[in-house]
Amino acid sequence: MSTTTHPPHAQEANMHLLRQAGISITLPRLELLRVLQEAGKALTAHQIYRCHLDAGHDVPLSTIYVNLKRLEDTGIIHRIRLDNDSKSLYCVSTDASPVRLVCKQCGQLLWVNDPRIALLLEQVCQDKGYALQGYGVTLEANCQTCAPGHLPS
Ligand SMILES: [Zn+2]
C-alpha cells in the first residue's frame, strides 16, 4: 500500500474537477478519485472496492460502478476495456500529463512527457486546418513484466 497521505489540496483540486464537470460533489466520488490517485495505477472496480474497505469505508460495489460510470461520462476517469474478459480498468484522466501509458494486464500506469507527441498532434491538427486546444491520450499496452521480450531498443 502507498505510504503517502492524500494532501488536502488534492481534495480541493478534485472538488474543483467535479464542479467544473457540472456534477455534484459527493463523498463517494471524492473517495473514488482519492483511491485512484493514491494507487498510481489503473484499477478494476473490484480493486477500488477493496481499497475502500481497507480504508474503513464500506461502500457498496454497485455505488462504485454508478460513480465510475458518471465520472467516465464527464471525462474525469478513463476506462480501459480488457481483451480477455468483461473487466475494465479505470484511471484518472486528468493526472500529471495528458498522455498516459497503461498496461492492459496489470494496470501499471505511466505518465509520458514526450514533447514529440505534442508536436505531432499539433502537426496533425494543422494539416486538417484546426488549431489544437488540448488533448488526452491513453496508450494501451503490455508492460515488460506482463509481456517479457519487448526490450527497449
Ligand atoms: Zn503489466
TrEMBL record:
GO terms assigned for molecular function: DNA-binding transcription factor activity; transcription cis-regulatory region binding; zinc ion binding
Gene Ontology annotations of biological process type: negative regulation of DNA-templated transcription; regulation of secondary metabolite biosynthetic process
Cofactor(s) demanded: Zn(2+)
Claim: Plastid is one of the keywords in the record: no
Protein name as catalogued: Transcriptional repressor
InterPro entries with a match to the protein in the record: FUR, Fur_C, WH-like_DNA-bd_sf, WH_DNA-bd_sf
Pfam families: FUR
Gene3D superfamilies attached to this UniProt entry: 3.30.1490.190, Winged helix-like DNA-binding domain superfamily/Winged helix DNA-binding domain (1.10.10.10)
